[in-house]
Design goal:
Blueprint lengths: L1 E6 L4 H11 L3 E6 L16 E3 L11 H4 L2 H11 L3 E5 L1 H13 L6 E5 L3 H4 L6 H13 E6 L2 H9 L5 E3 L17 E7 L9 H14 L4 E5 L5 H10 L6 E5 L3 H10 E6 L8 H8 L3 E5 L2 H4 L9 E3 L7 H9 L1 H15 L2 H14 L1
Parallel strand pairs: 1-2, 1-4, 2-3, 4-5, 5-6, 6-7, 8-9, 8-11, 9-10, 11-12, 12-13
Helix pairs in contact: 3-4, 4-6
Length: about 350
């Protein structure tokens, strides 16, 4: 079965899909930008097409649309069974126009990533209409949460497979005593949609009660300088450490040491980083979003916070008292429900059936 991935070749998430698919299908790939060097070990250069644009996922991608003829020529050369588009309001639109408008070969399968369904269609009637058209053109779509599946179905999607964008490998089970009880970790992008200022606010509340509490903030973004000022103004400059982007090994070390993981986006589906935190036995402190309730029962294996809530040690102490048991339970849940390979196998089997 011949399949062409269409997405952002500089995204680690598309690369993760490529690694999972490469041994299962005759794989080819198209990137709206370029390809990261890690692709060299997954897919030969002659099986890739880089469109070398700089797409903005919120829309207005005229430069990307001008690459439609190149994409159509590539698809005619490859003659795929499936054109698998990732992020539906940009790459899904590109695949839809190439096959429907220019007559390129291949049936469309689409994978939604989150904001392409939960945010972009709400911005304008045009984007809502485009999203509907792409979803209806897909013979099959994938979603990583029940809340996103319902939103896709409301927009007109046909068959939707729901499975988390899970882990490629399960880390070792957390060992009793390995975690630092007052260490917090956060690693979402330092951009407005992820509300990193809320991470600092929540930590500040606990820091008043736990003088030895520390927060490690990984990742980067446009708000970093403002967040560093926020931490300093709260008197936490020596207790909040901004470490920038981490490689996989360093990030795993942070997960393994931290008792707590904080993620506070204003919109999200099931986030890979939250699954990683659960797998490493962290206790998550998450924003009040429907997808987060699919992962966390507040007060049992983590905490769901309202957007204006403050945090204190009194709220965390009952969870901390069961910290090692929660760590084991969260790790076990990921092992049972959120590994990527079995989900991809079911996905491929469904494509073959179709």
């Amino acid at each position: 079965m011949k399949l062409v991935l269409v997405g952002d070749g500089q995204s680690p998430h598309l690369l993760k899909w490529a690694r999972a698919l490469a041994t299962r299908v005759d794989l080819w790939a198209v990137s709206s930008r370029g390809f990261s060097p890690d692709w060299d070990g997954v897919l030969p250069l002659d099986r890739r097409l880089a469109l070398d644009t700089r797409p903005q996922f919120e829309g207005g991608n005229a430069a990307l649309l001008r690459q439609l003829p190149r994409l159509a020529r590539f698809l005619r050369q490859v003659q795929p069974d499936w054109v698998h588009a990732h992020y539906l309001t940009s790459h899904g639109t590109l695949a839809w126009l190439a096959t429907r408008l220019l007559g390129a070969p291949g049936r469309i399968v689409g994978s939604a990533w989150g904001s392409d369904i939960l945010v972009t269609p709400q911005r304008s009637r045009l984007m809502r209409g485009v999203t509907r058209a792409v979803l209806r053109a897909c013979a099959l779509t994938t979603s990583d949460s029940q809340v996103m599946t319902r939103a896709m179905q409301a927009l007109g999607a046909g068959e939707v497979m729901t499975f988390p964008f899970g882990l490629e490998a399960l880390p070792a089970a957390p060992q009793a005593g390995a975690k630092q009880d007052h260490l917090f970790f956060a690693n979402r992008g330092l951009e407005p949609i992820y509300q990193p200022h809320r991470v600092i606010e929540l930590f500040a509340g606990v820091a008043r009660d736990w003088p030895d509490a520390r927060l490690v903030v990984a990742n980067d973004g446009s708000l970093r300088a403002a967040l560093e000022r926020q931490a300093a103004q709260a008197g936490l400059a020596d207790r909040v450490q901004f470490v920038g982007r981490l490689d996989a090994v360093a990030q795993s070390r942070c997960y393994a040491q931290a008792r707590w993981y904080i993620s506070q986006p204003q919109s999200d589906s099931v986030a890979v980083s939250v699954l990683e935190a659960l797998a490493h036995g962290c206790i998550p402190i998450l924003s009040d979003l429907p997808a987060n309730h699919e992962l966390v029962q507040s007060g049992s294996n983590g905490l769901i916070t309202a957007n204006d809530a403050r945090l204190s040690a009194d709220q965390l102490n009952p969870l901390l008292a069961r910290g090692d048991a929660i760590a084991q339970a969260n790790h076990h849940w990921v092992a049972q429900h959120a590994l990527f390979e079995p989900c991809v196998e079911r996905f491929i089997n469904r494509l073959r059936a179709l």
